[in-house]
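dumping the sequnces here before i forget
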Amino acid sequence: MAVRFLTGAAARAPVPVFPVVGGGARDGVEELRLCPGIDVVASPRAATVLLVAGWLPAALRPAAAQVHDQLPHPRATVCWARGDLAAAAETFPAATVVPPDGDVVAVLKRVHRGLVTGERDSEASLLPHEPPSPWKGVGPHGQGGEGMMGGRPYGRPMPMTGPDRDGLALDRLPLRVGPFFPALPAGLVLDVVLQGDVVQEASIAANAFADAAAAAERAAVAPGFGDDPFRRALREPVGVPLLELARAGHHLRWAAATLRLHGLRAAALRTLSLAVGLTSDALPRLAALRRRLERDPTLRWATRGVGRVSAAQLPAGLGGPVARAAGVVRDARLDDPAYADLGFRPVTHDGADAWARFRQRLGEAEQSLRLAQAAQSGAPASVARDRVESPQGELSTASAPSGLLLGLVGDLLAGMEWGDAVATIASLDFDLEAQPAAQVGVTLR
Amino acid sequence: MFAALGTVLAVVLAAVAALLALRWLGSVTDPQQVPPPEAVPVLGGHPPPTHAWSRFHLRYYPMTLVFIAFEMEMMFMYPWAVVYVQEGMKALVEMGMFLGILSLGVLYAWREGALRWQ
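..and the predicted 3d for all of it:
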């Protein structure tokens, strides 16, 4: 009886969900955080349900399978699929598939309840049950592996030493973090060499969303890609209110993710609930929120002086909030007559660090709501242009700002502590999906 | 004689029983029974290429040593507090000299940068 009561209570608890965020699913997964019965957790070890959302390129599926196997039993998978349901079913054969417009919250709750009450079996591992590096019975006495320092105890090599910043020779720990590491943008694979918590070297591995194979795959399975207002504005005239509301919404969602990364969960939820269904009437609430966040001592202390990208360091041709937070007045909207009629002048800051970029984006979000309000009365429409100011910077058919930003990462992160490195990457606001395939070879190291 | 032998035999039997029990406990709780794909540390989709047994620079180490050294000196204040009322002014001056010399040590550690967070 007591067990039945406990089972019932566990089945009614919020569903711990770990999201694997694929293409076109970022906003949908963010909005799940506002649902009361869902707890979006930061590690697969804390989850019972793996939510595979959006479109996964073939190159990311083995990593998704690895994340699946890291969930403790009992576990289940829900594919909130977009486009290619067959590929999802192939990678996750036991998954429950929800169409993009389906009620994913209800499905997550049902699957969780089934797992807890025992009506549904826990899913088996997807990867083979073989140690990646065999060690049992190896060595002169069968003790496992060979040697200690520099050898392969338990079949795995030891880290080798190298000079650290304090003049000591200490171990260098190479790690490949991502593509589904919750503190990094979805799809980003970061190769780092750590000594303690200090990043010695960093580079970004190939972007699986942007290579030629992925582009062809996306055209086949997710034809809706590119329907965001900024991409549409490259092809056809889009109204200023629509563009500016989308920009403000993007900046607020980014701010919510940044606040969550710094452990400010309540502020993150408030910001996110403002971003969802944003209208220009929300201006007073946004202004109040911005005042409160800019006074927040925790965030200022954690981000001031972190990840400084001065105007001289900026890659040629990079605009957007990162450049404007370094005091560079560069904005594609300045050439747009629709914005000239509204008296548009870009917001800038001069700290050039993560804190300046946070204030820059909040300032731009507020400015965007003002522009949306002003444009509603006169209703001017932006014409189709070859360059559009997206929330990350200048967008054209051939290049996206994320491509230029990715090239900065290696030099920027070297010498930082890991927490600062993560905060810096978050402050640059990468959108890996938006990077065109043509740009990949140029910017990735 | 036989009683002693019986004791030895009992000890040996108990040891063997304990050994078997521990081996059984070890096989039941063996972490290697977790299948390899589930035992991988969470890095977001890739296994780590090396062991994580790495030696790194513990930067607060000098600060810890200085803290322990000066905290131990406070032990001398307990017996001093017991005799302080009897001894009066003499004890006060002696403790003042002792703490004065100690604070010179703190100033020296400060000057050498031992209290700086790197």
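Chain B touches chain A through 23 residues (CB under 8 Å).
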